[in-house]
Amino acid sequence: MIRAVTRLFPHGLAGRIILLLISTIIIANLIALLVLGFQQQRFDKHASEDRQIERIVALIPAMQAVDDQVRQIIAKDATSRFARVQVEGTPLLEQTATDSRSEYIAQVLTDTLGLEDVRVAIVERVTSKGPPKPKGHNVSKKVIAVTTPLTARNGQQEWLNIVTSAAAPRKDRFDAKPFFTVLGLSLLCVLGVSIMLAGQLTKPLAQLSQAAEAAGRGDRTARVPEGGPREMRKAAQAFNAMQAEISQFDAERVRMLAAVGHDLRTPMTSLRIRAEMLDDDSQREAMVRTLDEMTVMADGLVTYAKEGQEGEKMIPLVLGPQLTQICADRGVPCDAELDALVRGRRVGLGRAFGNLIDNALRYGSEAAVTLRTDGQNAIVTIKDDGPGIPPDQLDAMFQPFTRGDHSRSLETGGAGLGLAISRTIILAHGGKITLENLPEGGLQARVSLPLEKC
Length: 454
Prior knowledge:
Elements: H1 2-8, H2 13-65, H3 68-78, E1 83-88, H4 100-113, E2 119-127, E3 139-153, E4 156-165, H5 176-216, H6 230-276, H7 281-306, E5 315-318, H8 319-330, E6 334-336, E7 341-344, H9 346-363, E8 367-373, E9 377-384, H10 418-428, E10 432-437, E11 443-450
Parallel strand pairs: 6-8
Antiparallel strand pairs: 1-4, 2-3, 3-4, 5-7, 8-9, 9-11, 10-11
Helix pairs in contact: 2-3, 2-4, 2-5, 5-6, 6-7, 8-9, 9-10
């Protein structure tokens, strides 16, 4: 049940804002309906009491002006199923009740009639309709009791005792049509306003999210428009400043690496010339071999630095044909889906996959490449039949100047920068690269690149 509700709950910020506003309007209208219903009941009750008070105000002066016989006739005519009027020798009430409503009615009658002795009390009267009912099941309702002295006739004091109740409550059913009409119009207005508001609020967030994803792929030119609410402007300014600082840092790092690799070539060339002039063949060959290894390392350092530059633009790229051509140039079998579309740099991806295939051929006698898609990513696997890598060193192989063999001999070639360069390129495309040893022997490099959305 909870999972079903969670699936129905909007995942986007705009949907949640709209749901919140609609829920608030519905709850507010329901509360207003309850309050209005309660107030209507109170209004009906007070209106009924006011009508009874008006009858009493009209009745008392008439009673005061006539004799005893006429008083009895008027009392009989004024008695109804809602009121009982009697002229008696004893008062029904000894004093006005202390509740605020009784005191209010007494004050109104006193001020209106100019009488000094008007007693009022709101009491509960128990009635039982139909056959006798068990104790506690009788109907109880509140009535207004009024007592006031009448002008004495023939030397005998008489009292006007009135017991009146409100009219029966209305049995009309609640008309829901106006309520639901108002509720529907409110929801339509709120829905329109909330869609506009949610769009304005979420657009800067969507732009920030897209720029952050691009930055995660290595795009240092990604920027966010500095507009919208104050908080979003500050977030955009902070992101843009961070991008500028990272871009400057990367540029300095690239320049430093390129300068180091380039500057190393001159002294190594000079040393090679001197080494070749040595008379001792054994020393000359050893020094030349060492200098050749240093030259490979310097060239690899320059290449590694250049891969950090962003001169090539990202374009939609069909990966299958390019990967097939790279494999054909190296004589490696390739089983590729030809319609896998990614967004990338052709030269950069060519270098990355070329390095991985060269690495597989360098440490194994055979290699095989496959390209598949899973709906979201293009997955490239490069397998070899080499000796593999110890499990505790798999992650370290992506670090610069790290090699699978520690001899650094020119027979296997390289300076330990091929995998580092490939990893830099793949990460810049928003992809992932992993190494794993195969159960049957050999090593597998697995590259995952996000597919381009058509």
